[in-house]
Amino acid sequence: MEKILNEILSTLKDHSKRFDGIDEKFDSIDQKFVSIDKKFDLIDQRFDSIDKRFDSIDHEISDVKSRLGNVENRLENVEERIDKVDIRLGNVESRLGNVENSVERLSEQIENNATEFRSHFKHIETKLDQHEETFHVISDTLMGTKIDIEHLSKKSGVHETEINQLKKRIHS
């Protein structure tokens, strides 16, 4: 039995050496797993930093979207104001058309009045010319009458003087 036990022990020692080799292999595998875990930890850290970068990029993108939303709102407001200006400009154009029509009517009316006034002035000038001729005739007549009156007045003065002289002679 001793022999069997020795054989078993020697077999176990052989097996123990094999197990030691297996243990060493497991230890090296464990070390590889540890180094792999470290690498995974580094990769996790890199992913964490990448996640942080993506979060900051997401935040910046949301800020940009917010700003773009504000810009879009402003553009919509500008478009509304431009539409209102277009409407007002259309109203102004319509009113300007009405003003142009009124100006045309007034222009025609002014031309008609000018023609009528010219005709009326010609008529008045004709009448004035007739009256001027009449005044010249009357003036000439009055002048002639005045001359006649002066002549007669002189004659009557001469006659009165002669009469006075005759009276004085008679009385003397």
Mean pLDDT: 90
Helix share of residues?
over 70%
Q: Largest sheet, described in full?
A: none
Overall shape: it is rod-shaped
The span between the termini is: 232 Å
Number of helices: 1
Give the uncertain stretches in residue-range form. Answer: none
Could you say which structural class the secondary elements and strand pairing correspond to? mainly alpha
**Quantity of strands, as a count:** 0
Strand content: under 5%
Organism: Cytobacillus firmus DS1
Keywords: Coiled coil
Protein name: t-SNARE coiled-coil homology domain-containing protein
Keywords:
rod-shaped, 1 helix, coiled coil, mainly alpha, 172 residues
Describe the structure.
It comes from Cytobacillus firmus DS1. This is t-SNARE coiled-coil homology domain-containing protein. With 172 residues, the protein is mainly α. 99% of the residues lie in helices and 0% in strands. The protein has one helix spanning 2-171. The radius of gyration is 69 Å and the shape is rod-shaped.
Secondary structure blueprint with pairings:
Blueprint lengths: L1 H170 L1
